[in-house]
């Protein structure tokens, strides 16, 4: 039985991962690993890098034939501060990946929005005189 060697033609994506020192771990359970699938996930996670520093990304792809929907994707992003975790299920693997990536993006956006709100609330000046006090 011959083993097929996989070639990586995404030099730019590999350079970006090395520059940011992100470790990417893909786990396939009851699924066959393909270059197309692995590169899709890698590109989608690398696209999140400008918005969030990702030190490590753990992705688990799973097919449970006895359940409906059968395809499940779980992504755990290790970041400075709280980690970002998302999980999604769907009837096709590409749809499950799309759902989990949009969930990750919404987590990242809400995290950034929370930071902006905190900064804005710190910039407001306190009132000069507390309410409820009369002139003495």
Describe what this molecule looks like in 3D.
With 136 residues, the chain is of the alpha+beta class. The protein has a single domain, classed as Ribosome hibernation promotion factor-like (Double Stranded RNA Binding Domain, 2-Layer Sandwich). It contains three helices and four strands. It has a four-stranded mixed sheet with strand order 1-2-3-4, with helices on one face. The N terminus is likely disordered.
What is the secondary structure topology, with strand pairs?
Layout: H1 11-20, E1 23-29, H2 35-46, E2 56-63, E3 71-78, E4 84-90, H3 93-123
Parallel strand pairs: 1-2
Antiparallel strand pairs: 2-3, 3-4
Distance between the termini: 95 Å
Secondary structural class: alpha+beta
CATH homology superfamily name? Ribosome hibernation promotion factor-like
Return Rg in Å. Answer: 22 Å
Give the fraction of residues assigned to helices: 25-40%
Strand content: 15-25%
Name the CATH class.
Alpha Beta
What's the total helix number? Answer: 3
How confident is the prediction overall: mean pLDDT? 82
Strand order in space, largest sheet: 1-2-3-4
Instruction: Please tell me the total number of domains.
Output: 1
Per CATH, the architecture is 2-Layer Sandwich
Q: Count of DSSP E strands?
A: 4
Which fold name is given in CATH as the topology? Answer: Double Stranded RNA Binding Domain
Give a short account of the largest sheet: 4 strands, mixed
Contiguous uncertain segments of 5+ residues: 1-18
Assembly context of the chains: single chain
Shape: elongated
């Amino acid at each position: 039985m011959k083993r097929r060697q996989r070639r990586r033609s995404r030099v730019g994506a590999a350079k970006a991962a090395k520059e940011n020192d992100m470790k990417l771990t893909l786990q396939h359970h009851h699924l066959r690993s393909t270059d197309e699938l692995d590169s899709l996930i890698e590109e989608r996670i690398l696209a999140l890098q400008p918005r969030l520093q990702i030190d490590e990304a753990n992705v688990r792809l799973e097919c449970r034939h006895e359940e409906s929907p059968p395809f499940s994707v779980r992504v755990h992003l290790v970041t400075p501060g709280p980690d970002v975790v998302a999980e999604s299920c769907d009837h096709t693997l590409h749809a499950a990946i799309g759902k989990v990536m949009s969930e990750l993006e919404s987590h990242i956006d809400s995290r950034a929005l929370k930071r902006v709100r905190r900064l804005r609330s710190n910039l407001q000046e306190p009132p000069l005189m507390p309410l409820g006090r009369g002139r003495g």
